[in-house]
Write a structure and sequence with these properties.
Alpha-Beta Plaits, six-stranded antiparallel beta sheet, 21% helix, 20% strand
């Protein structure tokens, strides 16, 4: 009989931990131990949400599952999807065909909840494309469309049941049956961040039948709740949850000149026109390149590539709506081999370098550039804003330039030309299809405003058409 006593569970755990511990470099993977058996996948995912997007989850509830689970995790990493590998997705989890549209009900409203406030909160989980607000059964509600279903999933996971302000304005979130919202007006009740050209309407926009049908025909009245002067409601999100919505010191809504509602001291959509652009390729990107690319979605006034961290840059647009438009279209776009990230910056303006300050030409002012696409009110450019695509629209082509000339021009930028055709009624315009969206982005940056001779400079934009 052995004199040694059996190791306690605690000692056993320490021994296992010691055996597993080995030097390793930082990675995106976090290993969690001693998770209670009754914890759900959703609860584990929610732990990571305040710190960024969770792309994979591997629940190892038994040794026999490890091989299959690991295989699924690898596949999910390659496809960029969330992998819940314990066998079943959590209730309400992402499913094939799930909508990117959320239906939001705000309960117990005591302070004003504006479209801008919703945008600030929900944009932390992905690119918000459209928002429609309305009241139904005396409840303030909203339909909010993300660029992708995964962002909608994360937002629902992180925000459902949370309160915007302490003990009030509680969010109840479900997935909508709709796949796309149709917005007629850009005002304080509805907004399409992908369209600059929409009218403001009469302030009482009606919903499209496709939207009204699932929920009845709501009476769209923006709630005129006004907190008493002097009250400063604190944001009800837990500390560190990653929702930097400013507190409201004077919760009184006042109509702005543009028809938008504004709340004093709240940095809203109507306020910030500066974007923080990150994960750039410092070997390839230039201020001019960012000026041309972001200029597709608005007039860029200033660009600053960070002196000590050149993969980051600030881009200042003409106004906040243009900043939202550029962010919704370019965030997640691959450029020079890296996936670009665009978010609203904490800065309100891009500062020019002081005289004598070392800058290496990384800060540029484009306020008076002749290349601005949207300087003319009512310009047709407002109606031709599309997401990055492999097909480019070319215009301002002189008569002497041939198909072969243009194909050669694009081939010299490293592009592979798949198709080309002139417009039948106007030979000054053409469509050219390249082999990928990334190639088209590079070609647009390099060739927009290219001198074709005869006082003609090539105009390049993304097209919704294919050849």
């Amino acid at each position: 009989m052995s004199n040694s006593t059996p190791a306690t569970d605690n000692e056993s755990d320490k021994k296992k931990f010691k055996e597993d511990k080995s030097p390793s470099s930082p990675s995106r993977v976090i290993h969690l131990r001693q998770i209670p058996n009754d914890v759900t996948e959703a609860e584990v995912i929610s732990l990571g949400l305040p710190f960024g997007k969770v792309t994979n989850l591997l629940m190892l509830k038994g040794k026999s599952q490890k091989a299959q689970a690991a295989l699924q995790a690898v596949n999910a990493t390659q496809s960029g999807n969330l992998a819940i590998t314990s066998g079943l997705a959590p209730e309400g989890g992402i499913l094939p065909g799930q909508s990117s549209v959320l239906r939001i009900i705000v309960e117990n409203i005591f302070y004003p909840v504006t479209l801008e406030v919703l945008y600030q909160i929900f944009s932390k989980f992905g690119s918000v494309l459209k928002i429609i607000t309305f009241t139904r059964n005396n409840q303030f509600q909203a339909l909010l469309q993300y660029a992708d279903p995964m962002s909608a999933y994360y937002a629902k996971m992180g925000l459902d049941g949370q309160s915007i302000y302490t003990a009030c304005c509680t969010l109840r979130i479900d997935f909508s049956k709709l796949s796309n919202l149709k917005v007629k007006y850009n005002n304080d009740k509805s907004r399409d961040f992908t369209r600059l050209d929409l009218p403001s309407g009469d302030g009482q926009p009606s919903l499209e039948p496709s939207i009204a049908t699932p929920f009845g025909t709501p009476n769209i009245i923006f709630p005129s709740y006004a907190g008493a002067p002097g009250f400063a409601p604190a944001i009800g999100f837990p500390q560190g949850a990653g929702f930097p919505v400013p507190s409201v010191s004077h919760a009184v809504t006042t109509p702005g000149a543009s028809g938008q509602m504004t709340i004093p001291n709240v940095t809203s959509v109507s306020g910030n026109s500066v974007l923080l652009v990150s994960n750039l390729n410092p070997e390839a990107i230039t201020p001019h390149g960012l000026f041309i690319l972001f200029g597709v979605y608005g007039d860029v006034h200033r660009v600053k590539i960070m002196y000590k961290k050149k993969e980051n840059a600030l881009v200042q647009m003409a106004d906040a709506t243009q900043a939202q438009l550029a962010m919704s279209h370019l965030n997640g776009q691959k450029i020079y081999g890296k996936v670009l990230r665009a978010t609203l910056s904490k800065h309100q303006v891009v500062q020019l370098p002081r005289e004598g300050q070392e800058d290496q030409g990384l800060t540029k002012d484009y306020s008076n550039s002749p290349l601005h696409r949207f300087k003319k009110p009512g310009s047709r450019n407002f109606q031709n804003i599309f997401p990055p695509s492999a097909t480019l629209h070319l215009s301002n082509i002189p008569p002497s330039v041939t198909v072969d000339d243009l194909k050669k021009l694009f081939a010299n930028t490293g592009s592979t030309v798949k198709a080309f055709r002139f417009f039948q009624k106007d030979c000054k315009m053409a469509l050219i299809q390249l082999s990928s969206v990334e190639e088209a982005v590079h070609a647009l940056i390099e060739l927009h405003n290219h001198d074709l001779g005869e006082n003609h400079h090539l105009r390049v934009s993304f097209s919704k058409s294919t050849i």
